[in-house]
Amino acid sequence: MNIIVTASQTPFIGGGALNHIQGLVGALQRDGHRVELVRFPFQFQPEASIQALMRHCESLDLSRPNGQRVDRLISLQFPGYGVHHPHHIVWVMHQHRAVYELYDPAHASAELQALRADVHAYDQRVLPRARRLFANSARVAERLQQYNGLAAQPLAHPPALAERFVCAEAQNYIFFPSRLESLKRQHLLIEAARHLRSPVAILIAGTGGQQDALQRLIAQHGLEQRVKLLGHLGEAEKLAFYAHALAVFFGPFDEDYGYITLEAMLAAKPVITCTDSGGPLAFVVDGETGLIVPPEPQALAAAIDRLHSQPAAAARMGRAGRARYQQLGIDWRHTIDALLQA
């Protein structure tokens, strides 16, 4: 088939969205389809730029661009899912979160208030037009139901390099690879390090806008010998850090999906997450494949100490996590079949 995939382009901002986009395109191409990726330049400010892009996307009809047959249109992100096509499959990574679950009316500017009204109207108008509506995760499906009254089918997919994750002998460190930003809550893990009773190190990988603030927090509490910011890791380095971790922490606020949870499960490592972390809660079974704790430093420290004091139980949780991943049948073959048969 000839397939167009639409997504957004946020210059110099990578992360899980890029892996999702590239993973889908690659899987479709390996399946023998001709695929074109159309990415719409997106910037968070000013709000008027978002409104202009919404109008542009909704004005586009990709049924037969330049006379070329397009059998399927698969849209992943706002506002690209407003494009027209008779066989349009929408697989929502997430909506524009700043006007949904992250919206704070007490601090919203007049421009953001107006954008919120426009985005809600846009989503109510364009999403029901889709031939089929999928969500990136159970959490994203819950939001679509909560805010828009729309039923979406959760559809999981594997992280990049899924076949290369392995488990090796655990060492005394907790691994947390992610973009360094407020919603990922690296600060929570750093604060937890102050309360640890066990000699466990904290290794945080990634880059982002919170790097300097996190480094200051480490210095403020005198944790330089226990907590390390590793910066960007290459693929081989990341796989090795996963393989030898005692456990993986991933406790963001209301995450959409969370590759880190799945990567840890593939590496047979227990996952520590939080009660308000969203996406990871669909995969982590408390006490079986990891630990779910309140987003509080003392509770997180206690969970880390527990795994350190019970290494056999930690290893057993990790193996159970890998088995759960396999039982869930998360692979691109299943994902592509679901999208193209819709």
Attribute tags:
Rossmann fold; six-stranded parallel sheet; 342 residues; single chain; 2 domains; alpha/beta; 39% helix; 17% strand; 12 strands
Look at the helices and sheets and give the structural class: alpha/beta
Examine the coordinates and then state which fold CATH places here, giving the name of the CATH topology of the largest domain.
Answer: Rossmann fold
Give the percentage of residues in beta strands.
Answer: 15-25%
Query: Tell me, what's the shape?
Result: globular
Helix content: 25-40%
Task: Please provide the count of β strands.
Answer: 12
Q: How are strands sequenced across the largest beta sheet?
A: 2-1-3-4-5-6
Q: Unreliable stretches, pLDDT < 50, 5 or more residues? A: none
Helix-strand topology string = EHEHEEHEHEEHEHEHEHEEHHH
- The figure for the number of domains is 2
Level-1 CATH class name of the largest domain: Alpha Beta
CATH architecture of the largest domain: 3-Layer(aba) Sandwich
The whole-number mean of residue pLDDT values reads 96
Q: How far is the first residue's CA from the last residue's CA?
A: 14 Å
Radius of gyration: 21 Å
Count every helix, treating DSSP H or I runs of 4 or more residues as helices: 11
Largest sheet: 6 strands, parallel
